[in-house]
Amino acid sequence: MGKIAQELLAEVRAYVGGLGPTVAEFISPWAEDLAERHIESTSLACLRHLDACAANAEGTAGEEIARLLAERGQRLRWGQTYTVDDFGQGFIDNYGWLELVGTRGHFANENVACGFLVLGPNLHYPDHHHEAEEIYIPLTGGALWRKGDGDFELRAAGEVIHHPSNTNHAMKTGEEPLLALFLWRGGPLAARSTVTGKAD
Ligand SMILES: [Fe+2]
Questions:
Q1: C-alpha 177: how far from its chain's center?
Q2: In-domain check, residue 200
């Protein structure tokens, strides 16, 4: 199991490091080697969307990350923060995240967490916020993203989306599933988001 996590981390370091100094600075607390945790893999229904995500990411800088997740992501530990009671069964069957680095994920770091979010097609992840400052980078295009009180905006693969501490954000997918990389710092890294929006 270790090898896929290590390959993914190497790809993430290169990808995030190539997004310019502001984003690269986010992972400066990873300057040292990160201790690997040997945690059990867990699968989720949403992983069935990873092949489509990898196809969508082809030709972009994040294609190798998407390919690794599609081919061997099932060997990693996926989780969910929400339950059926929050957003319904349709959401739970089409949503999940993987913490690659952080306080509980495959590599240990107490300062900056990093992982991936998967959302299936035609899904609405309602307004939510958290204390940690966040950067999202969609690895697939086609989803709509909203920040604060703004409108939903179409974001392309590779765009850097910054959410300051406690700023509401929401996503809506279209016909394609979404795979996005996230980075968190400056707040409790395993905190559950506060949801203020309503599911459709
Ligand atoms: Fe967030």
A1: 13
A2: no
